[in-house]
## 1
Amino acid sequence: MIKPDIIEKLGLFNNSELNIFSVYLGSDSIKAPSSGFLRTQFHSLLHRDMDSVSRHTYAHDIHNITRYLDGYIPSARTIALFSSGDRLWEQASLEYSLPIGITLGNSPYLKPILGSLDHYSKYIVLLVDREKLRIFTVDQGEMVDHSEVLDDSVPQVSKSTGMEFAVGKSDVNQRHNDLLLQRHIDLLAKSIVRFNNKERVKFVIIGGHSELFKKVYASLPPGIRSKVAGTFVTEVNIPLSDIMKKSKLVAAQVS
């Protein structure tokens, strides 16, 4: 993720007297590219984007970047590196793809990153079934699970034993379950409002059991309801990586 302080720090070098080497490396694949892949890609770009004179001028920076790639542990789809001798070294990791390439100049080449910050806006993913709530934020392609901040006393829907039919209590139990379910959904709605006020998200995605989507949607205040961008059907207790994949498919249609 690109932190604001990195952007601010790099902005101090705009129109400087330095020769600044900016390089973007990465892959369109969902999987983070390996160190070997990035090294090969980098050396291909050196010959594609630079002549021999430029490679000599920026030899120190090329050495710094090569050394960094030698020890790189795959963690992101795109990495951006900014170097100028011993005066500047910054790197940023992004969980989405940007065009690869090398740019030379007196300023760090930040246009791809700055453009992407608007495109990859922060959004909320919420998952709900009759017994569990999960809530996530996604920012610049990185997902964070906030489920632990939800109330631990989420009411659970009663399980049927079959005995209620014998004693004529099925209607009572159904009304009780419906009440608990509505409390369950209202808790989720309040959490979304809190996150929206704090995080200022661009849109909301609802996932989980499809029969609950309309109930969740109706429980949201109008300001949040207007931000619901789509839904996807899933079990709630799935790995974070699977939630990310499913939500990205919906988010791609929004972005």
## 2
Amino acid sequence: MADPVDDETVTMRGAIDLEIGRPDSGDSGFVSGLYDTLAFWLASFCFVLITFGWSLCAAFIVWLLPRRIGTRVGQWGIMVCFRIQVAVMGLTGRIFCDVSELDALRADGGLVIAPNHPSLLDVVLVTSRLSRVTCIMKANLWDNVLLGGGARLARYIRNDSPSGMVKLAVDEIRRGSQLLVFPEGTRTVHRPVNRFKGGFALIAQRAGVPVQTVFIETNSPFLGKGWPAWRRPAMPLCYRVRLGRRFTVSGDVKAFSTMLEAYFENEMRARSEARSACAGQEPPEED
């Protein structure tokens, strides 16, 4: 039985497929379903292979290089691994990723990059284009065989101590890193976004850097909250990452967080309505 999806997901699926010039495949029979399954497992296998290989290498490199050099090597290595993963997904012909707008952030200095968080692929998509990213990650992932070695080399920040997390994040930004942090704190459950936490704003304020908003759009609930990693989604999968406004944190951090949450809600709802209207239009008749 197919999984239920809400109207917003259906609208986004049709709109994204329309915009990138790919028709919605629907159910095209056994051969198509078999290819979708192969594409899914190929992408999954490559992710495991790439991340595990880099994690093993990074676990040794971290002891050989000085901290500053090691951090940059670690961040660059993660970018390369995730860029390869995005390329592999694209080569399947069933997973389409448009992350090109992120290239505009490459030359920028310290930033807090604040996206919405629809799926576990969000870190892969954002980090695949940026070579100086540090992340706040769950402490229980620190010893993960696929991610731990790379995270330690890149000096990613554990979230087990709130006060220590803020200090480490500020210090890393001042060393020139761009901090990727999801204001929702976890993957989106209540659309369009969960309630925002205030930690990202406090970090930006103390580091004296702006908050760059990022919108991640997808046509699928794949790897959202509660989605098992082994479960194949309906295909094609489409992902688009676009830049929003850049904000300076001033005054009360909690008020800023509430304001930014409202900004995300308004932008995402307006985008969804615009897509819905566009998808419902008939093509103009030729003269």
## 3
Amino acid sequence: MASEVVLPYRTDWREMESVLDYCKGKGADRAALETRFGAGEGLRETLNALDQLALIDRNEAGDVRLSMLGEQLAYAPDRARRQERLVEAIAGYAPYRAPLERAVAEGRTLLDAPWVEHLWQVDMRLGQPRNRVEEARTFFFRLADEAALGVYRRGVRGQTTRLELDEDAGAMLRPYLARPNARAVSVVEPAAEPAATGPEPVTGDAPAASLTVPAAVAPGVTVMIQVDMTDWDFERIERFLALVGHRRQDD
């Protein structure tokens, strides 16, 4: 059953392992899972984490079976093989893949909490509630620690919560980052803002009408600009279109 991006939180790897182990073979129905693990938030968030990482498949009734990757992880013969499969799951989940991919590309040695939260909420526009983002970031760091990608450090004495990447993290991730990500979420790459030359911004309630147009900001670089035209008159729209090169102004 496909799911929206709901950042995992309020669970841990031990709980996830327990559910994977319990679902080996033919899987388990929701009633059996609730009998074994309880029917509260803990099970719900553990199943969400497993689902987001594509380690289980769920049907509409909530019954669970292990995915192929989930089986490979659950049946891994040793800790090293299990960590490899966990790295694969992490690299395949867009909100985890994006900060790790960028860190490897930029040569970062650590991921700090504000940087990851900004990437999720601003660059990826996940729109998660604040309390979930904070706890989800900690869960991500702990999971990456479990996969031997780095060491989770809790923020104390003015230091921010962070993940200090292992020196081999890049080598561990690259085989999986090189694969196309079937579960990708759009990421807006940060870029320098061009000088403001367009029309003055429009304020007001949520837009009822808008226009998206391409505009070149440098050779070989194009950005998409979305403009709210709800309260614009026809003359102002024409001036704007002429400004971005989509309509010729009358002499």
## 4
Amino acid sequence: MNTIKHIFLACIILTMSACANDSTNNSPAKENSANTPTDTKSTPIQTAKATYQAFHSKVKPYTLYIPIGWTVKAHNKSGALDAKAPEKTDTIDYQATILLNMRKARMAYNEESKKMEVQPMDLSENAKEYMEGLQRNFDEMNVSPIEDTKVGDEIGKVFTYTYLKEDEFVNRIKAATYIFQHNSETYILTFKEEAKNFEAMQPIFEEIKNSFQFKSTN
């Protein structure tokens, strides 16, 4: 009788062990960091316009707040960011979009030091060069004059523009692009929305821009 009990207990133990191994092998894979969510551990910030969650870049020294429910994609190597508002139901309207890209500083040979060194960047030239690139790529682009601004305590430039681009959307898009520099890199922060909806979204875009901060290196 004791022998039968021992055999029965051994079978139970083996069955439980097999279930545990099965559970481990079928556990979900880690989320691709290219689809990084906002920091759900941080305290949400609520304003009269929206409720935001902090996003902290893993590879660049910046943080900003993004409305809860937006899709966030952060690129592992460059630190670039692409965030979109939820799709609008029963409509084909363009989704409000946040784009953040970086450009590394140019290197130039210094005759005095005999070394390759970071070439000082002129913010106005960077903004003008970027705007001209947009004009080559977008159809029927109307652009405002470049103005002074500030993002994340850094001096910057901003301009707004509207354009048509058939392969992106059939209606006119409006955008605001902020260009500023930090640690010898140029940051390009753009907010985009269908032109007819841009004014309604602008207060939220402004709050996102104002939330942008560079992390202290101390």
